[in-house]
Amino acid sequence: MAEKKTTTKAAAKTAETKAPAKKACAKKACATKTDAKAAPAKKAAKAVVYVNAENAGFRAGDVYQVLAAKNEALTIAEIAKAAKVTAEDVLLGLGWLLKEGKVAATEDNKIVLA
Asked: pLDDT tens for residues 10-31?
């Protein structure tokens, strides 16, 4: 019986030594995962594009005005920067303008007035 108590005490000490280390690591990992999940959620909320006829028309106007002012072929990023809108908004407006035949795409993935 004396041997069993010694083994039990040794196992208990080993378990106590390992348990706090696991809890500390688990807390750090949880904090890191929570922070990583929270950051993309905030970014995703900013990139919401409301798709309706009015918004698409306004975005088309923004894109058209930038292309007319620059009078050269521009990339989507350049149009977005000049119009001060997101790339998603530019794509929404480009869809409208492409359907109407107002713009055309060049071979090097730039957009130009048709």
From this structure: 555 555 555 555 455 555 455 5
Q: How confident is the model over 62-82, as pLDDT tens digits?
A: 999 999 999 999 999 999 999
Query: Which tokens in the block code for residue 14?
Result: 């080993």
Burial class (CB in 10 A: 0-12, 13-18, 19+), 43: exposed
Say how far residue 1 (Cα) sits from the centre of its chain.
63
Quick one: which of 85, 43, 114, 36 has its CA closest to 77? 85
DSSP assignment of the chain, as one string?
Answer: -HHHHHHHHHHHHHHHHHHHHHHHHHHHHHHHHHHHHHHHHHHHHHT----SHHHHHHHHHHHHHHHHHH-S-B-HHHHHHHHTS-HHHHHHHHHHHHHHTSEEE-TTS-EEE-
- Residue 40 corresponds to which tokens in the numbers above? 């993309």
Query: What's the rounded mean pLDDT across residues 92-107?
Result: 94
